[in-house]
Amino acid sequence: MVATHSVALPIPRRSAVAEYVTCCRACGTPGVREFLSLGATPIANALVEPARSATPDPSFPLAIGFCPSCSLVQLTHELPAEAMFDADYPYYSSFIKALLTHSAAHVDTLVDERGLDSESFVVELASNDGYLLRRFVEHGIPVLGVEPTAGPAAAARAAGIPTLEEFFGADTGLRIRKEHGAADVVIANNVMAHVPDLNGFVAGMAALVADDGVIQVENPGVRYLLEHCEFDTVYHEHFCYFSTIAVQKLFARHGLQLLDVEFFPDLHGGTLRWSAGRTGTPTDRALRHLDEEYALGLDDFSSYADFGARVAANQTQLSTLLRELRAQGKSIAAYGAAAKGATLLNSTGIGANVIDFVADVNTHKQGKLVPGARIPVLDPSELMTRKPDYVLLLAWNFKNEIMKQEEEYRRAGGRFIVPVPSPQVMG
After folding, report:
1. Which DSSP string corresponds to 224-276?
2. Are residues 33 and 66 in contact, defined by beta-carbon separation less than 8 angstroms?
3. Which of 71, 111, 173, 423 qualifies as a FRET site for 378, CA 20 to 30 Å off?
4. What is the C-alpha to C-alpha distance for residues 263 and 242, in angstroms, rounded to an integer?
5. End residue of a domain, out of 270, 303, 336
6. Residue 373 phi/psi, 5° resolution?
7. Residue 308 domain-assigned?
8. Is residue 211 domain-shared with residue 285, that is, in the same domain?
9. Reported pTM
């Protein structure tokens, strides 16, 4: 299998335009109803080089709404994908230990349950730096990654993972099937939310998967966004926020049957893994998830209507807490230059006058500035060097991993602030 790529040309961020979405990106029905606006914010992963720190970051409307027809939650304004997923994209999955552990268990389970071997074929969409596919390779299973961002794609190829460097859609799925054969497994973890052409993406998976194959998609569930007030998971890269109700309808539109639903409470604030195929019947677990979501009213706008007020209350509490601590002479850093951190900081009005620096293990982010907030990103060793009194956990979805890594800082008296579902100080 030959490593190959074709580069998607980026759109300069300053020339990008956020288009208002008039119809649902899944079912095409007009009348998406907005229920949360976070104002205008920069592209969350567009970290700033210090050399251009005097140039303001372009900002774009950031709001989400609900489709009454198919229940899909989605952005009300849309940026071109090429303006966000460009050569400077800084997200590398291999830096996150919890994600590596989760992914290894996912692969091992698939290999065991589906009897995958050297005659099988696995494709991962948004394969990033090959963090997951490497595990299949260790099992001797042929793989192909599809990853549109240049840096992670290059890292994957350097690790021996054949990778197409392009955006995935209906044509891509057909082409891969023609060139390599049907896929026994198609994996799309934390990517379906990032796709503006949702129907093209699912059509591509449907074209690629074998008749007896399986598609597995992971994304945070919109139920947990609501329950845990996870407003910071809203950013321009996330075009959609999925319920099982919406996913079942989306799959059915492309001849796919929802087969199973698994829940991972500690991953990204509450992640669901949806399994689908050309044939089969839903498991009792899948039906239970659907029943629970209908009982919670996730197919009705009224369940979303007060979310904006809850978010505003959270932002006020957090801003007040941080500013009171600063008024007391306390020093505050943050941990995790994640996209959700940029949303939280910019939409809440927290900048370098409150947060001294952001610690992050990702060397591709260190030395840069958080967009909008313009807070420097430094190596986590600075926590022990500078010993801030408090650390705001921007990457709260990896709270346990971070607090374990920074046990020395905790023993030295440092305290953490978890921002959602409501601000909480932890020793």
Report:
1. HHHHTT-GGG--TT--EEB-HHHHHHHHHHTT-EEEEEEEETTSTTSEEEEEE
2. yes
3. 423
4. 13
5. 303
6. -70, -25
7. no
8. yes
9. 0.90
Q: Is residue 86 part of a domain?
A: no
Report the distance separating Cα 238 and Cα 78, nearest Å. 10
Do 126 and 247 belong together in one domain?
yes
Are 63 and 75 in contact, with CB atoms under 8 Å apart?
yes
My answer on whether 218 and 133 are in the same domain is: yes
* Diameter over CA atoms, the chain: 65
Question: How many domains would you assign to the chain?
Answer: 3
Question: Is the preceding peptide bond at 376 cis, omega within 30 degrees of 0?
Answer: no
Which CATH number goes with the domain that contains 269? 3.40.50.150
Q: Are residues 237 and 284 in the same domain?
A: yes
The helix/strand/coil state of 290 is helix
- Residues 336 and 291 occupy one common structural domain: no
Instruction: Say if 247 falls within a structural domain.
Output: yes
Measure the CA–CA gap between 169 and 99, rounded to whole angstroms. 25
> What is the C-alpha to C-alpha distance for residues 355 and 115, in angstroms, rounded to an integer?
50
Domain that holds residue 28: 15-79
Q: What is the pLDDT of residues 4-52, one digit of tens each?
A: 333 344 445 555 677 898 899 999 999 999 999 999 999 998 899 998 8
8 Å CB contact between 378 and 366: yes
Retrieve residue 326's tokens: 């600063």
Show which of 79, 107, 127 is a domain's final residue.
79
Low-confidence stretches of the chain (pLDDT beneath 50)? 1-11
Dump the DSSP string for 175-227. Answer: HHHHHH--EEEEEEES-GGG-SSHHHHHHHHHHHEEEEEEEEEEEEBHHHHHH
Contact 355, 375 (CB under 8 A): yes
What was the pLDDT predicted at 311?
Answer: 97
